[in-house]
Amino acid sequence: MSKKKDSGSFKDNLITRSQEASTVRKIVLIILVALFLILVIGAISGYLYVKSALEPVDAESEEEITVEIPIGSSSSGIATILEENGIIKDGKIFRFYVKFKNESDFQAGEYTFTPAMTFDEIIESLKNGRVILDAVHTVTIPEGLTVDQIAEIYSERLDFSKEEFLETVNDRSYIKELMNRYPNLLSEEILDPDIRTPLEGYLFASTYDYYVESPSIESIVEGMLEQTQSVVSKYMPAIEELDFNVHEALTFASIVERETASEEQREQISGVFYNRLEAEMPLQTDPTVLYALGEHNEVVTYEDLEVESPYNTYKVTALPIGPISNFAENSLNAVVDPAETEYLYFLHDKKGNIYYAETYEEHLQNRDEYMN
Prior knowledge:
Elements: H1 2-54, E1 65-69, H2 75-84, H3 91-101, E2 109-113, H4 119-128, E3 137-140, H5 147-157, H6 162-169, H7 172-181, E4 207-210, H8 217-241, H9 246-259, H10 263-278, H11 286-293, H12 329-336, E5 345-348, E6 354-357, H13 360-370
Antiparallel strand pairs: 1-2, 3-4, 5-6
């Protein structure tokens, strides 16, 4: 009798377990089907969203919308401007499209677009720089200038004073804002109390067009920083490989810039400076002395060489504390790709020729031969 009861109980357990397993399988199947449907719906929704974002905002619209693309704007910045003005539906999609198509070299200026334009039409306009207005002001900032000299040029062309420009670029709260906006370019080093002016060396030498009568100092500064960031970003892998940071690389580039205008000479001079740094010798370059003095003299005296300053490379056995001017791109290129040389010395004659030497004795001979 007990055996029959045990047998019945065993059968009941089997049936119960079978029913539970069937229920579990059904639940798992339902979950898998639901997940599959979610993925399919998500994929279809994503596809439809991207497809829609690639199409004109309003293919029938004839509305003309004027937008300004600032100098040095990145594709991300341009996408944001276009989206905010209702010319495209989604800035991220436009940015990915530009990257996928490998488009670049967009031109700054004031443009007239319509919501009916396709991505390709917008890109074509941006590449060709089809602006509706001529620049109100065109200002050229040469290479090798200090912030003080740059302020002088802008004050002569625009409606603010040199003092107002300098006050803005030395405003530490504004500088901190810029550091947050350009974290890959501006570091804490520019706020060192011994730095003469934080943005020295960071305002790129170029020709700038302005499409408004009175551009703000902030828009000018930020446009120049955009240009610097655009140039420096191309050299970042090489800078990191040299174990430099951006501030050191731009400091080095500014010294090379101030030593000579010749691209070939810059590579040689860069090589000499590397040799001196490796030998723990002071760079002993006159432009740093002049910057330390705050003067633009043609001749440096022995008395000048004694000025106590973290910029004076006759006193410090490394790079100075910061840049001494802005730079041309080929000066930065000379820093990351110097000539291979054994020279430790060089000097300029009055005609701009440079004579190199491996030893101090040879250097003295060159001085006697070419400087008298």
